[in-house]
Amino acid sequence: MRRIGLAVVLAVSFFLTPILVGGQQCCKGEVLRPEFSIPREQAGVRFGSWSLFLVCNPAWLLKENQDRLHDLRLQFAAFSEAIGPKHLAVWFSKQEAESVDADRSSLYCEKFRLLPSEGPHVLVTTTYPDLDEPALNHYVILKLNGLNAPDTTSLLTKLADQLLIQGLQQADLDSERWWRAWQRSFEVTRTKLAAFTKKVRVSIHTKFFDAEIEGGR
Questions:
Q1: Residue 124, strand partner residues
Q2: Mean per-residue pLDDT for 136-156?
Q3: Domain boundaries, the chain
Q4: Cβ(206)–Cβ(176) under 8 Å?
């Protein structure tokens, strides 16, 4: 049996929790079907941050990656658990959970000027990701530059570990300490996974600082 990691086990309760929009179940945790917008809250508790897994280049969805979407989706949910209890990870899907809605992802890539050739992307923001809003205020963008699904799963596993080690959940949301924890986590992760993160790029934009981090160093 393949091992995905303890964090995935901890994430199971998260992504099996139904989220209601207009009285209807739109998703189980991070899986969002085409007819529903991104939730702002769950059970009356507002989310403080969101992460989006964006596949804007349909060519990435080759058979090798399609076959590993299940593991990747589970690890993406575990990654969100490391961010905190008021965080929602969003996986745009078609009708099946083990799918990717590249058309919907492309709308967000166009909105936030993310190049398909640099994807898939993981976008983390403390601003509600609304297509009708002019811009995001504070965000992290992970540009995977064609990294395949198995390696992306490994990257998110290590990154989730580092977010916990760096004390992200102990920092006030959207504070400088919170964003610095992201920066340190990426810097440590790129060293541990230098073999396949050399083409990964990270952009951080906040009111405290901006940073560009290259992988594989």
A1: 51, 140
A2: 89
A3: 6-214
A4: yes
